[in-house]
Amino acid sequence: MSEHLPEHRHVRLAEIAGTAGVSKATASRALRDPESVSAASSAKVRQALAILGAAGQTPYAESGTREGSGAGAGSGAGSSLIALIKPAVSAGNVDPYSRLAEILTNRMFGLGIAVVHIEAIAERNEALLETILGSEHGGPTISGAVVVGGGAAGVLAGMLAERGLPLIRISNARHDDGISRIYLDATGGIETAVAHLVHLGHKRIGLAVLRDSAAPARIAGFRRSMAGILHIPATRDQAPVVEAAGGAMAGVAAAEELLDLRCTAVIACAPSLSFGMLEAAQRLRLDVPRDLSLLTVGDVPDADVVQPPLSQVVYDWATVAQSAIDEIREMIAAGDARVHVDYTVDPDLVLRASAVPPQRR
Amino acid sequence: MKVTLDEVAARAGVSLATVSRVLGRRGAVAESTRAKVLEAMSELGYSRSTLLHDAPRRLVAVSAPGNPEHWQVQVCTRVAKALQDHDLLVTRPLVETDPEPLQTAIEAGAVALVTTTMTSLNTEIPCIRVAEQSATEEVSEAGTEVIAARLDLGGGMTTAFEHLRAIGHRRIGLICNDSGELAVQLIRRFLAEHPARNLGLNLEDWISRVPKSFSGGSRAVLELKDATCTAVIVQSALQLHGALHGLRNRHLQVPRDMSVVGFGDSPTMKFTGPPATVLGLDVEGLSNALIDATLQTLRISTTGLPSVPPVFRPRLVARTSTTAARQ
């Protein structure tokens, strides 16, 4: 059966001519002898080859493209690319790493490194792996990757590491996968958040976390902080925790559950959960911060301009991004002699206006 | 009658991306799916004469301008995801504010640019973008620009004006960016559709061109307040946040003292003080138009584009930042 596969290996001349907007005769001459046609036509044909992904593929195109312009149209040989891999975020959900990805992208482009953006999806990872590493099918070569976040991106990172691509992960869970990593340790941040809320006078403090691989460490950290700071047994009853799925609606449900438990303050561990809290408060006609104090661990978009401005436990993304870029460049340069790195980054508390002393309730 | 890959995909009940993977023998396709696709091809009599080839690995730039609006980021993300499903590599340099990142991407081998900016970027590679509905731009000489969709800003302005006029506003101002094609077109449509345009007033007094920034917004809204405007339309989300802040600082209340309409929706618009009334864009429709045009340009899909690009008219999402004008 396989020999009857209707496969297409070569780009036809008519197609090149059509894409370039020149006649077949011109295209043919441009490919064989670029000197024989006008510079404009030659450029058009080179571009068509790049668009069709045929640069360097058609036997006689090779010499044509190289001679035509020294810069080399399309094949991109020689320039290094670094992949930036993130888990795909479903429509309507909030991406907790958008700010970090933006800084990474802009800094790398600032250094003259082109960034290839990959959104990892569990069921597409096999195909993505081939796309990332398959430079024998033409197109640019990717020399390393920065992997932000977990989930499908973490799985893809493992697959890429097995194939020997230099990698660095930035994630909020720690695994023994042998991949270099910058670990965003939220437990310290949660402790700071608890201490701040207790200092304001809150006693019933709830935690909302996403149900992911980072959740157990966060819940344990929260319980430990509550027990240590408030001197209470950190039971389910005294230190309520809600685990939520992704998405704003799950955030709303988690918020309603915590409000039912008469919490006066909530620590939300993801931006989608914070938006859920705000939405739930709006629905119940509760005022943030008067009726409910809210602290977010992580990055809520526009946190400084919404009403009220949200207090946050955030990482210094600029430093994290710069370290990741420095490390990955070093790893690429070192080749097989690269050293394993493992940092832990603690977040800082940024106080705005969403947490105040408890008023009633 | 030529059989297209889209028909094959429909017959096999799989996506176009899967069909191209089967054809190109690239990526992972389940054996059962592969068989289904091949069966559909033989049933339909698909012949290899179509333009599709073995989907070579290519790099495509998907770009928003610096400090992008939320809708621009959303559209870019959707486009990037769809192109990735066709086994293309995606790079997302910022454009418009700084030419360097795009140049880096082109040197790295980007073969086309898909962008949500309306400004013509004069790229050497094909540029697939959005334009204003009535904008008549000359097609660049190299023919590298593809207009995939048109935004009906005039219609959007009319919607905003109708909403504000229905609740008694006449003195309506505009806060827009001090550069960029979107601002130019917004001003044009503002002057053309303004309810007070025939009253012999100088409408220019009610337009404030400021940088796309928080402080720009606060400054502009107070200027327009002093110019006796009772309502403003704001181009950028940053300016909108700034405007709300500026009014609050002056101890003015939104919407009692000033009604505010934003351009482009985002999750945070629900939680501004007060929740902002905005002109929302059809992010999904815009994304799909850009995706279709890109696949066409790269000769991945051959269904043919509509001869006239689809037009998208912004829709009003009413929240609580607008209210009846005080007499």
TrEMBL record, chain B:
One Pfam family it belongs to: Peripla_BP_3
DNA-binding found in the keyword field: yes
Keyword Transcription regulation: yes
CDD domains in the cross-refs: HTH_LacI (cd01392)
Coiled-coil residue windows: none
GO molecular function, one term: DNA-binding transcription factor activity
InterPro entries membership: HTH_LacI, LacI/GalR-like_sensor, Lambda_DNA-bd_dom_sf, Peripla_BP_I
Residue span(s) of domain HTH lacI-type: 3-61
Domain of life the protein comes from: Bacteria
Swiss-Prot/TrEMBL keywords: DNA-binding, Transcription, Transcription regulation
Name of the protein in question: Transcriptional regulator
